[in-house]
Amino acid sequence: MQGPILSIDEALKEATFHHQAQRWSEAERLYLAILQMQPLHPVSNHTLGVMSVQLGWPAKALPYLKTAVEANPATAQYWLSYAEALRAAGRAQEARSVLAQGAQRGLRGEAFDRIWRWSEAIFGLLAQAIGLRDAGRLDESTLVCQRVLSMEPCQPDALHLLGLICHDQGRHGRFGDWVDRAVRIAGASTPYHANFGLALQLAGRLDEAGAAYRAAIGFRPDHAEAQSNLGNVLRDQGRYDDAVLAFRNAIHSRPDYAEAHDNLGNVRCDQRRFREAEAAYHFALALKPDHSPGYSNLGNALRDQGRLNAAQSAYHQAIRLDPAYAGAHCNLGNVLQGTRRFRDAIAAYDAAIGLNPSLADAYYNRGKTLKDQGQVDDAVTAYDRALSLRPSYAEAHYNRAMADLLRGNYSVGWKEYEWRWRLGHKGAAPRSFEKPQWDGGAINGRTILLHSEQGMGDSLQFCRYAPLAAAAGAKVLLEAPRSLTRLLRTLPGVEQIIATGDTLPFFDVHSPLMSLPAAFGTLVETIPAAVPYLSAESERIRVWRDRLGASGYKIGVMWQGSPQYQGDRERSVPLARFSPLAELSGVRLISLQKSHGLDQLEDLPAGMEVEQLGEDFDNGPDAFLDTAAVMMSLDLVVTVDTATGHLAGALGRPAWIALPAIPHWVWMLEREDSPWYPSLRLFRQTEPGNWSGVFARIADQLATVLA
Fold first, then answer.
1. What residues form DSSP beta bridges with 138?
2. What are the distances in angstroms from CA 40 to CA 53, 64, 303, 421?
3. What's the chain's average pLDDT?
4. DSSP character for 672?
5. Could you give the count of Cα atoms lying within 13 Å of 274 in the half-sphere of its Cβ?
6. In the predicted model, is pLDDT for residue 447 greater than 70?
7. What is the pLDDT of residues 571-583, one digit of tens each?
8. Is the pLDDT of residue 525 over 70?
9. Residue 595: predicted pLDDT
10. Is the backbone peptide bond immediately before 663 cis, with ω within 30 degrees of 0?
11. Residue 535 to residue 537: CA distance in whole angstroms
């Protein structure tokens, strides 16, 4: 049923009410209804035009405001509103001309003259400030903006421009402050909200940034930049499918928007959909062949696929197009680091920093490269610099934690290690429970759920904290991978073992296993190192003791970890490296290897023998049961850094660990012992990649033991 027909005055009154309440669509509908009845109605044309400017559509406002001026040229405010819309549309000279025409028509009253002269001065100064900023003369532009604000303290364009200048200077906090003030004053301005979103995004306040971008899009649904920036926020939050939709919306709004195609490629890389990522990058480069970020991002996609030479070529092309593009120098450094050309990588990062001293990524990646060279203290300095520029930089916090733990600075390292939960798509997602995470407070009489989070070696190492929680008076539940549950049943102090994925019983608090050192305030001196805390099954021990026999000095060997582990290239060694051990009289090398690396048993050096334990060795659903039992009959285990070493340590069995020059943080630096495992001894590379020296020292030490 059609509602009552309103008179023009009634419709205008209702439209004004909706306008003031920011119910834009209702107000617009009523203003347009009035114009259907009376197309030259000056008040409706004027207010509809003013509303369009408020919503960030000055071009849409111009015909309405022009009509208002023509319908009632005696109203000074109409001329002023028309001039303001022209200025907002980037037509400052026409704005001045309109004000001049108003004056020529006789609008010479004191109010108009004052506003005209005032506006003329404001317009002129703002145009001057914009020109100075465009010329890179930021300090001078700032002074002009401040002059505008001395004349009109709440002038939103001057506030907004000051924010943009701060952004240009890398002062992102002040950028947000200025633009926030402009938003509060100007209200429904699409550019202001969009840039406020950018400021919030740079500050790591992603939820608020997304809200600001959505506000900008609400005022102007076809604002491609806001849609694309919203996609970047969603990407940073790990919401990849939503990010793809936002980038596609941006492309729909502006099909030739190369940056949106580029951003779509970035999120496709995150999704490991490299074919689609490359297609998006090539589309962006077809639209904008001189778009150096497109080549740099293409290089990232190629690097992530292991196509390092092609990636390096793409980065060089980006730098050729824009030698001052700091991000491309930084990305080039990353691929050089990946090929272990550390000196060249540092040079690339330094070039990036020289071009952009505020580029947090360059300091962060420089830190990673320094750490890989063993310069851990210098690496921490670089991470700290990155964090001073971007306090919410999760990767820098996490890698600083790795460096601090590596050098034994546990009081800082454990705290920083909690940043692992904020790594987004680069890390594990935190578990979501209704009950709180335990913070180390009183736990007597409460039930705590401890849950595994990373690899098997980490579970074997950190399950040692379960008895401590029990000793503090807690009822301890332990959730672990199903394959480990049988072995972990021998862990003292645990009330119940639950396989990951099974229904959880009631608990009061929870903790990831690797958050327990922080909760207990663990220092190097207070590591709970009592071993053994795990045990092998007695019947399996008997069976394997009989199968192995008593002859010889029995050494279990492990030479390769999972290739999926990021650092496997540094930790795994060819089985042939163990040959100096096999040359010692009376030594029996016995393979503890499962799956990866077994092919090397078929291609041993002449005279080298490695016994295999048969297809039934740890062939069931439960991990390490046979390995643990075999270890109880071995004289020694010699292994690279895998879960096997952690198992030997947890069982209290003697084991020697062959480590790369820069090992996992658990093994710290320089020490030959491990404060985590009293029965282990560490043999380190003296220089990256030199395994021959490691195994020569192991053989020498073994010869001493056998003598």
1. none
2. 19, 9, 62, 61
3. 89
4. S
5. 11
6. yes
7. 999 999 999 999 9
8. yes
9. 82
10. no
11. 7
Could you give phi then psi for residue 515, rounded to 5 degrees?
A: -95, -10
Closest CA to 62 of 85, 42, 32: 85
pLDDT of residue 2: 45
Instruction: Measure the CA–CA gap between 475 and 641, rounded to whole angstroms.
Output: 33
Whether the predicted pLDDT of 404 surpasses 60: yes
Q: How many residues does the chain have?
A: 707
Output the CA–CA distances (angstroms, integers) from residue 179 to 148, 184, 186, in the order listed.
Answer: 16, 9, 10
Pairwise CA distance, residues 323 & 311, whole Å: 17
> Which pLDDT value is given to residue 104?
75
At residue 24, what is the residue type? Answer: W
Report DSSP state, residue 676: S
Domain with CATH 3.40.50.2000 in the chain: 538-706
The highest-level CATH class for domain 232-426 is mainly alpha
Tokens coding 118? 């005032």
Nearest Cα residue to 677 out of 688, 668, 690, 686: 668
CA dihedral 676, 677, 680, 683 (to 10 degrees): -10
Task: For 539-619, list the strands marked E by DSSP.
Answer: 553-558, 587-591
Report the C-alpha gap between 345 and 369 in whole angstroms.
Answer: 7
Residue 503: both structure tokens together: 């229904």
- Tokens standing for 452? 């595994």
* CA dihedral of residues 198, 203, 205, 206 (deg, nearest 10): 50
Helix ranges (H only) for 616-686 are 625-631, 643-651
Q: Enumerate helices (H) and strands (E) in the chain, giving the number of each.
A: 34, 9
**At which residue do the structure tokens 């030959």 appear?**
672
The fold for domain 447-526 equals Rossmann fold (3.40.50)
Q: Is the domain 8-203 a CATH 1.20.120.430 member? A: no
Per residue in 130-166, pLDDT (tens digit) is: 888 888 888 888 898 888 888 767 677 888 777 788 8
We find that the CATH architecture of domain 538-706 is 3-Layer(aba) Sandwich (3.40)
Distances in Å between the Cα of 294 and the Cα atoms of 287, 299, 498 are: 10, 8, 48
Give the closest residue to 629 by CA, choosing from 647, 641, 645, 643: 647
Looking at the chain, the domain(s) classified CATH 1.25.40.10 span 8-203, 232-426
Q: Which amino acid is at 22?
A: Q
Q: Can you say how many angstroms the Cα of residue 533 is from the centroid of all Cα atoms in its chain?
A: 37
Is residue 509 within 8 Å of residue 477, measured between CB atoms?
no
Question: What SS3 class is residue 130?
Answer: helix
